[in-house]
Fold this protein.
Amino acid sequence: MAQHPLIEAFQHAGQGHVFAFFDQLDAAAQQRLLAEAAEVDLGEFARLSRTLLTPAAGGGSGVTGLTPAPYEPRPENGGDPAAWAAARVAGEEALRAGRVAVFTVAGGQGTRLGFDGPKGTFPVTPVKEKTLFQVFAEKIAAAGRRFGRPLHWFIMTSHANHAATEAFFAGHDYFGLGAGHVHLFRQGRMPAAGHDGKILLAAKDALALAPDGHGGSLRALDRSGSLDLMAQAGADTISYFQVDNPLVRCVDAEFIGWHLLCGAEMSAKATPKTGPGEKVGHFCLQDGRLTVVEYTDLPVALQRETEPDGQLRYRAGSIGIHVFDREFVRRMACGGDGAAMPFHRADKKVPCLDAAGRLVKPAAPNGVKFELFVFDALPSARRAVVIETRRADDFSPVKNATGEDSPATCRADQLRQWVRWLRAAGAEVPADATGLPPFALEVSPLFGYDEDTFAASWRRLAVRPPVTAGLYLA
Ligand code: UTP
């Protein structure tokens, strides 16, 4: 009997073992396996095996010829106030013209947090216990109202969490944004491989597939038709952020304006590192191109270098907040005009079948996963700009269950932000030396999503409530 052409292609590529148990499967299981196999780009996979699975590959290579990348400092740190004001005006104009779409990547596995469910459904606010998705939805709704143009919100999910994410949004009536303005789509997957380059099986009818990283979002935006949808809606500028950071100014007129006024194809926010050891990527120039070098790849000596005034030389840390030109994303997705993003390898424990078809749960890393990182698009941008942001106003991710970057630190950072806004508006609020109040309070993004919008709403209140435990401003 003639072989299925896909099976032949896998055999030809040295991956025929993927179908070792095919004859033991019923028809439905065979179809499942074939469908998963069809997701694999065998040519791409062979290239990755050659380049990333050789003993010399990965870790610390290719980081020569670096200098710190320039960035636009905030006005309080020496930046030009007029340039920042012009950026804000340009960004607000773009928002009023409906040129901006919002984009959240939410396809991660969230293993460190260990929460059972899509990370966006994690309750994060101190009083109302709003989920991450609700916080973003309210910020997006508030910006839409302010600029008179509802924004389209694109959310990248994974195969593992797509259905649950969809059900969550439907169950919450899309938080009032309207189903037509919230667009969910799945990211791509990559097969995990053993160290010998053989694709691993998760079951007799399933490959060991893993999400292809947040960098996979660019091709997923294209493949899902999201870029076309944006074009139809008149949006040419994409505001990108990650699902774990409720502090993010996800519709930031200043940032959008800097991006547009610089004619950038991709832009990034940087925050000064808290110290040489902080585990964030570094904005660098390499051969004149903007690039992000991970903390694992930047030599420790460089991470410790200081300027004469004592500041770290490589201080501009990457926090996963970007603006993209829509057509740049399309170019990246198609790999046109030399646009390319490298895959990174991560050594992991991958449960998989052994040659006899038994499931093995390894105690040590037995395989390799391949991921794309979104910041790797920066060197392909014809123009790119990095602006400084205040960490306290933009970045407090929930990554770990406890300790740093946990729900507890994020809750405290939200509280501190609201205390700052309240005090700036003239309210009296008790707080410790770090700015943390002795009780929980909460501000809805619909009341204020930054210091200015908060102050405007606060001024409009006929009766200003005392700032006490449990205060909720909505
Ligand atoms: P992280 O790098 O923190 O990974 O993702 P993670 O998978 O969420 O968490 P851990 O490492 O397993 O604990 C940063 C952002 O990128 C998204 C995540 O959802 C998060 O918003 N992401 C990551 C994707 O959308 N897809 C991926 O394949 C990886």
Q: What stands out?
A: Residues 105-112, 119, 156, 187, 211-214, 242-244, 399 surround uridine 5'-triphosphate (CB under 6 Å). The longest helix spans residues 407-424. The chain has 14 helices and 21 strands.
